[in-house]
Amino acid sequence: MTAQAEKSSRPQGDWPEAVEVLNEHGRCEIVLLCEHASNHMPAEYRRLGLDASHLQRHIAWDIGAAEVTRLLSARLDAAAFLSGYSRLLIDLNRPLGSLGSIPVLSEDTDIPGNAGVDGAERDRRAEIMFSPFHERVAAHLDRRVAEGRPTRIVTIHSFTPVFLGVARPWHAGVLHGHAADLAAAILSGLRTDAALNVAANVPYVISRDADYAVPIHGDDRGIPAVLVEIRQDSLSTRSGIKEWADRLAAALPAHETEASQPVRR
Asked: Which long-range contacts (CB under 8 A, 24 or more apart) does 119-127 make?
């Protein structure tokens, strides 16, 4: 039995689709990805040996990122692709086989259920959770190319205000590989709010060894692609999430569509 067939024989709610697709035929140039949208973990994994409280932490997902992505998709009339499983099972923004793909340590927390995972289980998680997400994204990008549609990729993430005891002063970062011009345009838009501390390539940098979406879906295809990181304390409320969605909608250099233009009365 293949991993996909095995998945289909299990309770649907416990084994959701690997990717949730929103507004796939949206007219905006922007394609949104949210690889750490979900903290869902099927019951058979027994929370990988962690207390339930750990699944609400950043180690399990990017807090607030899914909500920002959903609002942006609607606001911009943009296609969006969101993950269905926790990053602790397999990280959709890490190359398969890398140290961060199925982490045994996340920040300062040991992940007991990932220690000693064998090749068969790694392949199973990749087949059920990783490959379907990226194959759906790739197919969407292929169609856009075939249709001659301009495309820019923006992946939405969030980061902790303090990491291993070190405070992070930035409100947001825009990470890029080849797409320095797109990153600069977004940062310029965000800096219209003088109160914001935003910068390029913080709190991380894009690396082919530690990132997947930007180098694979973007740089390798010649599609401008950036990763937006928002500090999580500004996403702790619904109003904060909406504020960031509004900021990004205004800052993203996408052609306006009828859906994103203000109604004139």
From this structure: 122/90, 122/96, 122/97, 123/3, 124/3, 124/6, 125/89, 125/90, 126/90, 126/96, 127/2, 127/3, 127/4
DSSP 8-class letter at 225: E
Are 19 and 69 in contact by the 8 Å Cβ rule? The answer is no
Query: What's the token pair of residue 113?
Result: 């259920």
Instruction: Identify the segments of the chain with pLDDT beneath 70.
Output: 1-11, 254-265
Q: What is this structure's pTM?
A: 0.93
From first CA to last CA, the distance across the chain in angstroms is 59
3-state secondary structure of 83: strand
Alpha helices in 147-220, H assignment, sequence order: 180-190
- What sign for the dihedral angle of Cα 189, 192, 195, 201? positive
